[in-house]
């Protein structure tokens, strides 16, 4: 069979998703009536990475957020098909002043945690105050940094008083760090360690842990759930695999029903080219970006001429073509294409790759060449092609004669904390946006308490431009401000954007709802999945 479907993505104005039938496995899964979803995300609890990976006050990566979004309810949520967030645990929410500094929500009547305890406005205040006071090392609390105080009126009204205008605040209330938790399960003064999660979301969760890692999460429909999400199944399981190949074998053998991130480029290509069988590949536009991060205090890259020379030498077109093919696009800004406020700031400044210009920049700055660098990358978080990507980056830099680089791969549980602690001069990172707005590609990298714990500071960006962008309720009006920020980033190069990726999901053809199982921010929406009849 050969099926293709196009669906318009409402928020981004992009075409999504594309479905192509392929494969030759038998329908079904090895887990009875549960829909089984495979992933290569790793969920570990370690001293290096943190012992509380699933606490909303700590979790800050796409994998852990995809678990929390199923289980911990937020006041707001991204709607089906994207767009501005809509009330979820709340019955209604909105700014109550002209300056976008006072935001009020009224809770749905009869909300309760999965254990039956009622949810009140005081629980919302407790949860937000807790996340802010704990200041988890992951930096996720910074999403709530514009909050000054949280006030409650009665049992159902919550009022957020902001330090400054923030038109993006409704989006932030849709992220897991703003999840509503029970004080009996989540202590005020410490993070909840381990892999247990309790909330009021569409599912309850049971964890299966082996050698300090979550290997299987079973989500069961929560009969007490009250919210806007429609749940199309009674049970879903997420199973973690060590590699894309083993995950692919599990799909082929019928052990899982759905395969999510991260598939290899070869897997995606084979699935896309197949014309018969009962496995579907779902392709949709994505807002995932990849970039190089710099410790701007490190001796090797402290001089911005070195970072500018790298920006001048790296050939994104060649990198994407040789490693990812049609599955990614070159990226010339922190803000990806499809998001209001995007500009090609790096191309505007550097143009096509030019070794002669890079050499001149280094000579003018008095930098001796070749500049010796190690390019660090994670071996098990962004997919199996990451190694090839960094080998290609290293080759491009070395072929210029201006750099002498090697590469070093490290597992995510050690890689992530090492980057935050400044142990790497140059390292590769990926980013899935917290919400589909340019602010979510700027503030996490450049604002105070940023995600990277970067030593780079630009006062104009922090004190003027980011606050200015948040005062614009019409996000189109914020575009000029975001363009200024992107121009500053292109000049200073605290980070170097590389490419923007599409997103993929493969599923057996009796699984329904796959077109909406991922939104533009790569949120896994398990409630959309159902089981139909294979064709």
From TrEMBL:
Signal peptide (UniProt feature, chain positions): 1-20
Keyword Transport: yes
Keyword set includes Ribonucleoprotein: no
Keywords: Signal, Transport
Location, primary (coarse class): other
Cellular localization per UniProt: Cell envelope
Domain Solute-binding protein family: 84-450
PANTHER family: PERIPLASMIC BINDING COMPONENT OF ABC TRANSPORTER (PTHR30290), PERIPLASMIC OLIGOPEPTIDE-BINDING PROTEIN-RELATED (PTHR30290:SF10)
Identification of the protein by name: Peptide-binding protein
Lineage summary: Bacteria, Bacillati, Actinomycetota, Actinomycetes, Kitasatosporales
């Amino acid at each position: 069979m050969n099926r293709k479907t196009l669906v318009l993505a409402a928020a981004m104005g992009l075409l999504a998703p594309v479905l192509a039938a392929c494969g030759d496995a038998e329908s079904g899964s090895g887990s009875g009536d549960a829909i089984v979803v495979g992933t290569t995300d790793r969920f570990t609890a370690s001293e290096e990475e943190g012992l509380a990976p699933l606490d909303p006050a700590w979790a800050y990566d796409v994998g852990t957020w995809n678990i929390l979004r199923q289980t911990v309810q937020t006041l707001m949520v991204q709607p089906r098909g994207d767009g501005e967030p809509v009330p979820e645990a709340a019955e209604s929410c909105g700014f109550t002043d002209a300056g976008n500094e006072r935001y009020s929500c009224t809770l749905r009547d009869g909300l309760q945690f999965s254990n039956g305890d009622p949810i009140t406005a005081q629980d919302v205040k407790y949860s937000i105050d807790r996340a802010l006071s704990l200041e988890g090392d992951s930096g996720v609390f910074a999403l709530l940094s514009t909050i000054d105080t949280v006030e409650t009126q009665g049992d159902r009204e919550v009022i957020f008083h902001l330090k400054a205008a923030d038109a993006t605040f409704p989006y932030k209330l849709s992220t897991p760090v703003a999840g509503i938790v029970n004080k009996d399960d989540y202590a005020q003064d410490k993070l909840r360690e381990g892999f247990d999660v309790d909330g009021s979301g569409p599912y309850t969760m049971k964890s299966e842990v082996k050698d300090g890692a979550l290997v299987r999460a079973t989500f069961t429909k929560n009969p007490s759930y009250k919210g806007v999400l429609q749940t199309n199944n009674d049970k879903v399981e997420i199973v973690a695999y060590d590699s894309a190949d083993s995950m692919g074998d599990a799909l082929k053998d019928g052990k899982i029903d759905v395969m999510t991130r991260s598939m290899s480029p070869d897997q995606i290509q084979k699935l896309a080219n197949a014309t018969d069988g009962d496995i579907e590949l779902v392709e949709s536009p994505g807002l995932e970006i990849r970039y190089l991060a710099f410790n701007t205090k490190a001796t090797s890259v402290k001089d911005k001429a070195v970072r500018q020379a790298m920006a001048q030498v790296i050939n994104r077109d060649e990198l994407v073509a040789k490693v990812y093919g049609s599955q990614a696009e070159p990226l010339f800004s922190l803000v990806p294409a499809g998001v209001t406020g995007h500009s090609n700031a790096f191309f505007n400044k550097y143009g096509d790759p030019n070794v002669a210009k890079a050499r001149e920049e280094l000579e003018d700055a008095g930098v001796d060449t070749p500049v010796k660098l190690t390019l660090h990358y994670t071996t098990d978080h962004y997919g199996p092609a990451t190694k090839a990507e960094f080998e290609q980056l290293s080759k491009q830099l070395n072929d210029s004669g201006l750099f002498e680089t090697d590469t070093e791969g490290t597992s995510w549980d050690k890689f992530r904390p090492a980057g935050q602690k400044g142990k790497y001069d140059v390292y590769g990172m990926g980013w899935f946006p917290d919400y589909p707005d340019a602010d979510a590609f700027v503030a996490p990298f450049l604002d105070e308490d940023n995600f990277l714990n970067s030593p780079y500071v630009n006062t104009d960006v922090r004190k003027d431009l980011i606050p200015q962008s948040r005062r614009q309720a019409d996000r189109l009006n914020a575009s000029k401000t975001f363009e200024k920020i992107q121009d500053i980033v292109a000049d200073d190069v605290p980070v170097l954007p590389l490419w923007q990726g599409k997103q993929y999901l493969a599923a057996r053809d009796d699984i329904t709802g796959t077109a909406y199982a991922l939104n533009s921010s790569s949120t896994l929406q398990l409630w959309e999945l159902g089981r139909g009849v294979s064709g």
